[in-house]
C-alpha cells in the first residue's frame, strides 16, 4: 500500500464540501482511500491518500486543489515515509488482513481481486477460519458463510436450519443438481428421482424431501433394477430427514439473498444433509445471480473439499468457480485437504491464502499451484496465524486475530 500526503495553506475562507466530494470520487475511482483534515489554528489543509497501486493520485489531487481559489500548495512537515496505521484506513474496496511479516506495513487485499474467487488452505488449527472471519467482517458486500462446524457464532446473524420442506423455489434443475451432488446418485437412481421431481413440479404447490420420499415409495416396481434403485435411493433420501439439533425451523431459501448471514450446518446430523443444504444454497444463489436478481455476493464455503470435491462431474460449485464472477457471485473456499478438492478451485482462485500445512504432499501441491514448487518448505514452517498470500505476487502476512 502506498500512502501520500499533500498540504495546502488556506488563504481565504473556504467551503470544504466540494473538495471532500471531489476527493472521495477520485479516490473511489482509483480504489484508494482519502482523508481531508483542516487545521483551523494553523490554517492548513492536509490531504492524505492511501492506495494499493496508484502513485499518481496525489499529483492529480494536488493539481485540482491548486486550482481552488483560497488554497496555496505548501510543504508538508514530517510527512516523509507516511505509513497507514493499521485499522485507521478503511480503504474503500479493500480487505485488510493484518501486517506484512517482514515490513510490518498493513496488508490489505483489493476487494476486486477477491471477485476472481479465493481459497484458504492450511492444516487443522493453522488459522483458516480466523482468516475467513476477518475477510467476512471486512467485506462491505452481501456475504454468506456455509459454516460446517458452527465456528462463526457471533460473527453475523445465524441461521440454524434451511427448510427442507419448501424446495419449489430452488427450481427443478437446481434441485436435481443439489440432490445428485450430495447423494452421489447412480444413473438409475438419478433417473427415478428425476421422474418424481418432475411430477412434483408439474403438480404445483409446495413440497419437500418428505414428499419426494412419499412419491418415490409409491413408484411401481416394474422391474428388478427399479426396485433395487428405488430402495437404495430411499435410504439416501432418508439421511436428509434425520433430525439433529436442527429443528427444521423454517428459513426459506428466499431469505438468503438478504446477505450478512451465517448458515450454521453443525445441527445437521448427516454429512448428506450438510452437503445437500450447501449445494442447495449455492445452486439457488447461482440461479438468482444468473437471472440478475442478486446483488454482488460472497460465499465463504468451509470444508470446501466436501462441497467441491474432486470428481468427474461438474457440480454447481465448480460452475460458480468458472462463471460466477461475471454474475457477481464469488466464492472463498476454505479447506484443510486441498488435494481432495476439485482442481477448478485452485485453478480459478486468483487469491490464494496459504496457512501452515503439515502434510508435505499437500504443501507441494499448493506450492505448485502458485507456480513456485520450492515454496513448500516455507509453507510447512508457517506458524499459526501466519500465511503466504498469493495473488500476482507472494506476500508473507501475519493475520490479525481481531
Ligand atoms: N491470526 C491469528 N492470530 C493469533 N492466533 C490465531 C490466529 N489464527 C488462529 N489463531 C489461533 O489458532 C486457533 C485455531 O484457529 P482456527 O480455528 O482459525 O484454525 P482452522 O485452521 O480453522 O482450524 P480447523 O481446520 O480445525 O477448523 C484459534 O483458536 C486461535 O487461538
Ligand atoms: Mg476452521
Helix-strand category? alpha/beta
Q: Report the portion of residues in β strands.
A: 15-25%
Q: Poorly predicted ranges (pLDDT <50, ≥5 residues)?
A: 79-91
User: How would you sum up the major sheet?
Assistant: 11 strands, mixed
Binned, the helix content reads: 25-40%
The CATH topology of the largest domain is given as: Rossmann fold
Total helices: the number is 14
Average pLDDT for all residues: 85
CATH level 1 class label of the largest domain: Alpha Beta
Distance between the termini: 21 Å
Describe what you observe in this structure.
It comes from Ignicoccus hospitalis (strain KIN4/I / DSM 18386 / JCM 14125). It catalyses: ATP + H2O = ADP + phosphate + H(+); Couples ATP hydrolysis with the unwinding of duplex DNA by translocating in the 3'-5' direction. It holds the Pfam family DUF87. By secondary structure, the protein is of the alpha/beta class. It folds into 3 domains: 2-74, Ferrodoxin-fold anticodon-binding domain (Alpha-Beta Plaits, 2-Layer Sandwich), CATH 3.30.70.380; 94-160 and 256-399, Rossmann fold, CATH 3.40.50.300; 168-239. The chain has helices at residues 17-29, 57-66, 111-114, 128-138, 172-183, 187-203, 209-217, 224-239, 271-290, 304-307, 316-327, 343-348, 360-369, 376-380, and strands at residues 2-10, 32-39, 44-51, 71-74, 94-100, 106-110, 118-121, 142-147, 157-159, 261-264, 297-301, 329-335, 351-354, 386-390, 394-399. The strands form 2 sheets. The protein has an 11-stranded mixed β-sheet with strand order 6-5-15-14-13-7-12-11-8-10-9. Strands 2-3-1-4 form a 4-stranded antiparallel β-sheet, covered by helices on one side. The radius of gyration is 26 Å and the shape is elongated. Bound molecules: adenosine-5'-triphosphate and magnesium ion. Adenosine-5'-triphosphate is lined by residues 122, 124-130, 336, 384-385, 399, 401.
Amino acid at each position: 500500500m502506498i500512502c501520500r500526503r499533500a498540504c495546502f495553506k488556506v488563504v481565504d475562507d473556504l467551503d470544504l464540501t466540494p473538495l471532500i466530494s471531489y476527493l472521495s470520487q477520485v479516490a473511489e475511482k482509483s480504489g484508494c482511500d482519502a482523508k481531508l483534515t483542516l487545521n483551523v489554528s494553523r490554517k492548513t489543509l492536509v490531504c492524505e491518500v492511501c492506495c494499493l497501486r496508484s502513485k499518481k493520485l496525489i499529483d492529480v489531487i494536488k493539481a485540482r486543489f491548486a486550482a481552488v481559489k483560497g488554497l496555496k500548495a505548501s510543504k508538508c512537515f514530517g510527512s516523509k515515509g507516511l505509513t497507514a496505521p493499521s485499522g485507521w484506513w478503511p480503504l474503500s474496496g479493500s480487505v485488510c488482513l493484518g501486517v506484512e511479516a517482514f515490513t510490518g506495513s498493513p496488508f490489505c487485499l483489493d476487494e476486486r481481486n477477491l471477485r476472481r474467487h479465493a481459497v484458504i488452505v492450511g492444516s487443522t488449527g493453522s488459522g483458516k477460519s480466523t482468516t475467513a472471519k476477518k475477510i467476512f467482517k471486512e467485506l462491505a458486500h452481501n456475504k454468506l458463510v456455509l459454516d460446517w462446524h458452527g465456528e462463526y457464532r457471533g460473527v453475523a446473524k445465524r441461521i440454524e436450519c434451511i427448510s427442507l420442506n419448501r424446495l419449489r423455489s430452488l427450481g427443478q434443475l437446481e434441485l436435481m443438481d443439489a440432490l445428485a451432488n450430495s447423494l452421489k446418485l447412480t444413473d438409475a437412481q438419478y433417473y427415478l428421482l428425476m421422474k418424481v421431481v418432475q411430477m412434483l413440479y408439474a403438480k404445483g404447490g409446495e413440497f419437500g424431501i418428505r414428499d419426494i420420499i412419499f412419491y418415490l415409495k409409491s413408484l411401481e416396481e416394474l422391474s428388478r433394477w427399479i426396485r433395487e434403485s428405488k430402495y437404495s435411493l430411499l435410504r439416501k433420501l432418508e439421511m436428509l430427514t434425520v433430525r439433529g439439533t436442527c429443528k427444521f425451523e423454517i428459513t426459506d431459501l428466499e431469505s438468503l439473498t438478504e446477505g450478512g448471514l451465517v448458515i450454521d450446518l453443525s445441527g445437521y446430523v448427516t454429512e448428506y444433509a450438510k452437503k445437500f443444504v450447501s449445494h442447495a444454497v449455492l445452486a439457488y444463489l447461482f440461479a438468482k445471480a444468473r437471472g440478475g436478481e442478486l446483488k454482488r455476493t460472497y460465499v465463504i464455503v468451509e470444508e470446501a473439499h466436501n462441497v467441491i470435491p474432486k470428481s468427474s462431474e461438474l457440480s454447481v460449485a465448480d460452475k460458480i468457480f468458472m462463471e460466477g464472477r461475471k454474475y457477481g457471485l464469488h466464492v472463498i473456499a476454505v479447506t484443510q485437504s486441498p488435494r481432495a478438492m476439485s482442481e477448478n478451485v485452485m485453478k480459478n482462485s486468483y487469491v490464494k491464502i496459504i496457512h501452515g500445512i503439515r502434510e508435505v504432499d499437500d504443501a507441494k501441491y499448493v506450492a505448485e499451484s502458485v507456480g513456485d514448487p520450492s515454496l513448500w518448505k516455507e509453507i510447512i514452517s508457517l506458524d499459526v496465524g501466519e500465511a503466504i498470500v498469493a495473488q500476482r505476487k507472494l506476500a508473507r502476512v501475519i493475520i490479525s486475530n481481531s
